[in-house]
Amino acid sequence: MSAAITQNQPVLELRDVKVTFGSGRSAATVLKGVNASIHAGKTLGIVGESGSGKSTMAKAVVGLVKPSDGVISFSGRDVTKMSGAEHRRMRRAVQMVPQDPYSSLNPRRTIGQTLAEAIDPLRANPKEHSEKISYWLSTIRLDPEVAERYPHEFSGGQRQRIAIARALAVQPKLIIADEITSALDLSVQAEILNLIGRLRKELDLTMAFISHDLDVVHHVSDEILVLFHGEVVEHGDVDAVYGNPQHPYTRHLIDSVPGGPGFDIGERRVAVV
Ligand SMILES: Nc1ncnc2c1ncn2[C@@H]1O[C@H](COP(=O)(O)OP(=O)(O)OP(=O)(O)O)[C@@H](O)[C@H]1O
User: Fold this and answer.
1) Ligand 1, closest atom to CA 182?
2) 28 φ, ψ (degrees, to nearest 5)
3) What percent of the chain is modeled with pLDDT above 70?
4) Closest by alpha carbon to 191, among 175, 204, 207, 180?
5) Are 172 and 93 in contact (CB under 8 A)?
6) Which protein residues touch ligand 1 with a CB less than 6 Å away?
7) Cα separation of 269 and 51, whole Å?
8) CA distances to 37, 122, 163, 178, 228 from 250, in Å
């Protein structure tokens, strides 16, 4: 079968993915048969409270965690069957924007150097760097002159925008944004969400947007997947899930004040810890 990506083939697909940490009596199954897919140009919002398995899902996609069962396909290829070279290409084609903008940028590199490395890791076309660096800085609404500066000269929100630019500059097929607003003040969170909302349309991004906050995910996603204790309890179009949630846990996420005590399934009260 051809590995070429077809129109209807998702960029990313997880089929019945299980992840277990530890062994014997201390084994803990953190993902319990997760199914998910992301098509080109679409954003899948992945939501669930702390410990539900969101980051484990992201790590399994990029190969930092090995599934104990199931299949993860990227552009139609099983990631566990990729050759070393294919895997290296995939690692570049899947870019993660990390949570903490204070530790994710190299403090000894200027913003321009960081972006140049993303644009052209082999330094093959240095003449094109400054034009591309200016383009990516303008795209995230920073003055291209800041390319000469170092990370400590920027606010948390600005650093997070630079981390987004660095991921975009690689021109990846998939972006994984894992809790990218949770380390920021509320007003800055809104700024980053607006930026992501604009970029995903302008650049036709394909993205997994992970957050514990359904409200946040709702603003930037085409589809939402709700994880609860490692299981997908709801998955569908953003307006359907947000406007008409079917699962009690999703309703809890919409209604609850953070840290609320739990939700009901029939007669049963499920505590959320
Ligand atoms: N390497 C590991 N070894 C053992 N247990 C792990 C490991 N990584 C994660 N876990 C456990 O797996 C569960 C899910 O963790 P994960 O980080 O995926 O959750 P999350 O939904 O991303 O939560 P958070 O929003 O707090 O990051 C947690 O109980 C966590 O303690």
Assistant:
1) 25
2) -130, 120
3) 91
4) 180
5) yes
6) 21, 28, 30, 48, 50-56, 212
7) 19
8) 19, 46, 30, 19, 9
Which residue bears the tokens 């940028």?
A: 105
Q: How far is the CA of 61 from the centre of ligand 1 (A)?
A: 15
Domain range list for the chain: 12-271
Nearest CA residue ID for atom 1, ligand 1: 21
User: Residue 8 and residue 109: Cα distance in Å, rounded?
Assistant: 41
What is the interface pTM, i.e. ipTM, of the complex? 0.95
pLDDT above 70 for 256 = no
Contact predicate 212/48, CB 8 Å: yes
Q: What is the pTM of this model?
A: 0.89
Closest residue (by CA) to atom 30 of ligand 1? 51
Q: Which numeric CATH code is attached to 12-271?
A: 3.40.50.300
| Residue of 263 and 35 predicted with greater confidence | 35
DSSP letters of 80-123? GG--HHHHHHHHHHEEEE-S-TTTSS-TTS-HHHHHHHHH-TT-
For residue 23, the number of C-alpha atoms closer than 13 Å in the C-beta half-sphere is: 1
